[in-house]
Amino acid sequence: MHCLICHQPLTEIITWSSLFTLSTQNDQPQICNQCNQKLEPITGEQCRICSRPFSKLEPKFRKQDLCYDCYNWERTSEWQGLLTQNTSIFNYNDFLKDLLAQFKFRGDHELVKIFTEPIQTKFKQMFDQKKPPIIIPVPLSIERQYERGFNQAQSLASLLSQQPIEEILERSHTEKQSKKKRSERLLTDSPFHLKADINPAQYKNKNFLIIDDIYTTGITLRQIAKVLQPLSPNSIKSLTLARS
Q1: Is residue 161 classed exposed, middle or buried when 0-12, 13-18 and 19+ CB atoms within 10 A define those classes?
Q2: How far apart are CA 94 and CA 100, in angstroms?
Q3: How far from 13 is each of 56, 84, 122, 140, 151, CA to CA, in Å?
Q4: What's CA 101's distance to the chain center, in Å?
Q5: How far apart are CA 237 and CA 128, in angstroms?
Q6: Residues paired with 135 in a beta bridge
Q7: Banded model confidence at residue 23, pLDDT cuts 50, 70, 90
Q8: In terms of CB atoms within 10 Å, which of 1, 76, 198, 232 comes out highest?
Q9: 17-243, what's its fold?
């Protein structure tokens, strides 16, 4: 067996349960100890809404149990209360940045298997398994999906294979969000909309879970949450691999 990241032979079996304390199936893909140590799980006190670790934030940018970004989101009537909570698993350090670039932009789709256990573990911590949410991967535009060959959010959502995944959203083609400054992202019109054949009645009072790879400004998740509001959901949460 070889590490899926560095491809070195595994001399010691390292499982994600050592990070997240919950045991899972023994046949999950493994990574070597050296790569394992380069990933930084988010721990300790965090922003109640976005999972930003307060240990990486100056006190002046904190408002009680919120980071200043979320505090400002919640002060704006247009966005207040739309996103119930985002849970991010890892800090977006240089190692994870390179890893996700390899996964998303250089077509190494096999790397998604690395995240099986952390995604499944966090999901179990977030929800009562008797009342699973409806999982919604952040969609790509047709042009962007053709360019990449797959949707990374859909791939991550598929790791929750026993859960109801519904692709009820569509996305218009726009410039990549990663190329925009925060101020430009905030001024961008939402590219998301519900598919035309959606029946709102079947989603009333349901819990939604949006899946994406990175939480940066929070605008993407809130734009989606806003689009979902006509469905009268009970809550809208998100699960992301990384918090930048």
Answers
A1: exposed
A2: 10
A3: 31, 37, 21, 36, 30
A4: 15
A5: 14
A6: 165, 209
A7: very low
A8: 198
A9: Rossmann fold (3.40.50)
